[in-house]
Amino acid sequence: MASIKEPQNQVTSTTEDGEDDYMSMAILEPTFSAAQMETSAQRRARKKREAEARAHQPSKAELTRQAELNREEALSTSLPTTSKGFRMMAKLGFKAGSALGKEGNEHAMKEPLNVVIKEGRAGVGMEGEQKRKFREEAGDTNGREGPKRRETEGEFRERQGKEREEKRAEGLCWGAMRVLEEFEGDSSHDGSGQRNNESEAVKISKKPTNQIDVLWRGLIRDRLDKEREKRMRYDLHQSLSRHAAYDDLEEEKQERQAWGTWEEEVEEEDAELSAFNALDPSERLRRMVEHLRRRWRYCFWCKFQYPDNSMEGCPGLIEDEHG
User: Is the Cβ–Cβ distance between 141 and 252 less than 8 Å?
Assistant: First the structure.
């Protein structure tokens, strides 16, 4: 009699008589693998992800990171016994865990030197410079000058305001020097504001700079320096079209100077002018203003020359008194 095969997903029980109890039969859920359970849409998405993973090109950062991991892994492991280098050293008597060289040397190294990879494009001494800066920031200067302290917002505003005041005072100094030149550079001015003969003005303009009052001597020196520089550029341009060895005795002084064949004496350094320019701009301006009032009865702030020494109507000596 042929046997009847029961379904695999059915579990039957037997009674005490040995007969099958079909009334208590349990039907189990069918089991499927993950590949059998996914739908066609899920299968397409999975294959798409796998294709993208295979086609992915690692970035430079990923390659660098992978190279670091491979290097660290290689350096952390000892020399394998299967390598050619180990076999060559074994023929010479090397044993794993022992040191190279003469036996009995206590200071012999059993591990190779660690490899330190230099990263970045900085120079060899850059690391020492960074350590020095770090020590300075930490306050360990070993007697050297400490790091510059960052100024606060109030200190910055105060410094900016002071620089603006100094720049403004410097501009006022140049204006006062031009006023002094109008009065003292032209000797045709007298105390009453009238003009004398013009011949004396020519003599004053030809005076050496060291004989000019130091209060406005800087203006003349600056003007002469600019004129000399302009003349030198002109002489250089002219000398390119004329031989330097050519010399004509009949040439006028101005022509020889224009052609670059006239030797001009250079003025020496003026110590008195240097000391005066070293003063604070506000102090130089104060001296000029007082000189104009005392000698010429001229108020620099009023821009007016008074008829007498009383200077009636002038508010005062400083700018703040003039409003």
Answer: no
